[in-house]
């Protein structure tokens, strides 16, 4: 197939070569030495004329009448009569035409036969080229149709597989939807049961809240009735704490003024503040006494609280009166 197609393409691309070879053969036959050279025959020459309207085209052999080379009077008269068409010279013209026809028949018969053969060969080559091209086109078309058919078959098979997969997927989805519907119904029933339980719980909570409110009202009434007693107890505790704190303060001041405390403070002031003025030493001694009193009160209150003789009620009331809230741990 490749050699025939290449030959066909070369023949289609170079059609001018065949016509050129045909013209060369015609020229060879026309210019061969077998042509007679009689005086009458020399009056006709084969000239190569160019195609009209086609510049640069190759010449073609044409039989034309040319003046005779001899200078005889008879030849000139015959030639002039043939060209002028004088009716007085009609017999001479008839003879000339007969001789010309005979010469043409003898001269161009081989050329005509060879040309006919060449034309037949060219016609056969053209038919072969056309048939080859048609066969190539048909073959390519068949290949294209075959490829397209195979592609369509593959597409159809793939589509069938996809359809089967989609059908299986749809079946699974339908089963899933059925399961979901069953679960939805179960959830609906469970939701209805939960709703009933919530209603029951709400009712129980409402009853419980009513009972708690009743109990709270009773407790508040009891607290209100017991509030005077509580106030009296708090006042008693406050008086007790005040007496304890006062006793601790008096005891601390007394201890700070004893000889055991006064003498060491006096000696420390004499040693440490020997060059200081007297008022300053006195102020320093009193500040030291106040600090000792505070330490003694703190220590004595912790001791009394450990025995349960102090309730710190005074501190709580003092703190709440200042800040407006109870101290931590109360």
Automatic annotation (TrEMBL):
Protein name: Uncharacterized protein
Keyword set, alphabetical order: Coiled coil
Segments forming a coiled coil: 191-222
Taxonomy of the source species: Eukaryota, Fungi, Fungi incertae sedis, Chytridiomycota, Chytridiomycota incertae sedis
Region (Disordered) residue spans: 1-71
Organism listed in the record: Rhizoclosmatium globosum
Superkingdom of origin: Eukaryota
Biased composition (Polar residues): 1-10, 18-37
